[in-house]
Design goal:
This protein is of the alpha/beta class and 289 residues long. The chain is built from seven helices and 13 strands. Strands 1, 2, 3, 4, 5, 6 and 7 form a seven-stranded mixed sheet that branches. Strands 10-9-11-8-12-13 form a six-stranded mixed sheet, sandwiched between helices. It is elongated, with a radius of gyration of 20 Å.
Length: 289
């Protein structure tokens, strides 16, 4: 007998600086009379990253940006089989006031609590374990997204200059799918090789998010060199901006080497998020559009 697929969900441990140290958001569900972290089921075709941000907004009214991933939780629901929840750390963006949140049938209370008090308020042991993982995670870090350009026309089918090679239809869909994924990290700087296929990969995000595109030939296959790439990546690690760097398969090993991360040999449209602090990579995760 074939095992049923788990119900997929996503959520976040949202934090801010409070008067008594770090505070996190917890929500009350009247149907179960429990306190937990905001989370919810994925919409059809929705990526976990996007669902986490959306669910936090729906259940708390807060806009957030994601930080490092937390352990995936898998547990059995009484009537619906397995549930698998992907969690991230997340920092509130803008006004963190939840006083105006309107209670509803799903969530009737939202509150910020210091970590110590949140631990006592949470209803389930697995949420206490998630809070432990949060405290052990570099949640104060910043993201650097290293992106391989989306699916492009093959070299064999292209008879013009290689830098002018365009995205395929599948690649254009990937570029659109990347928009909410990069928005989940509230990316501020958009750096790309000058090749058309790289710039076209990040342009939908830049246009939608009103970000300038910084084109740099030194990220291209034709002009990249180990020393220049290393110097540029180190500047990004020392900086405070949340950035995405879009480049090519032959250049990516130098980029990963410069940030101190093993090269995962990304497929087109895939990216690694390097969560960094103090000029060093503290955590990584990989995603595909």
């Amino acid at each position: 007998m074939k095992a049923s697929q788990p119900t997929l969900a996503a959520g976040a441990v949202v934090w801010r600086k409070g008067d008594q140290g770090v505070e996190v958001v917890v929500v009350h569900r009247p149907k179960y009379d429990d306190w937990s972290f905001p989370k919810g089921k994925l919409d059809p075709g929705e990526h976990h990253l996007v669902a986490a941000v959306r669910e936090v907004a729906e259940e708390t009214g807060l806009r957030v940006r994601l930080g490092p991933a937390l352990p995936v939780q898998t547990y059995t629901m009484s009537a619906n089989g397995l549930k698998q929840v992907h969690y991230w750390t997340a920092r509130q963006v803008g006004d963190g006031d939840v006083a105006d949140y309107r209670p509803n049938a799903e969530i009737d209370a939202v509150t910020w609590l210091p970590v110590r008090k949140a631990r006592r308020r949470l209803s389930y042991p697995h949420d206490g374990e998630l809070l432990d993982a949060f405290e052990d995670t570099p949640y104060r870090s910043r993201p650097l997204v290293i992106l391989r350009h989306a699916k492009a026309r093959s070299r064999s089918s292209w008879h013009r200059e290689d830098t002018a090679r365009t995205l395929t239809e599948a690649g254009r869909r990937q570029a659109l799918d990347l928009v909410p994924m990069l928005q989940a990290y509230d990316v501020q700087r958009v750096l790309t090789s000058d090749a058309v296929r790289c710039a076209a990969t990040v342009r939908p995000f830049a246009d939608e998010s009103l970000r300038d595109i910084e084109t740099d030939r030194r990220l291209s296959e034709e002009a990249a060199d180990q020393v220049t790439v290393a110097r540029g990546m180190r500047r990004l690690l020392r900086g405070k901006a949340r950035a995405v760097v879009c480049s090519h398969r032959p250049v990516l090993p130098a980029i990963f080497d410069a940030v101190g991360v093993d090269d995962p040999r990304l497929k087109p449209g895939s990216f690694v998020v390097v969560h960094h602090r103090g000029g060093r990579a503290r955590a990584t995760e990989e995603h595909t559009a």
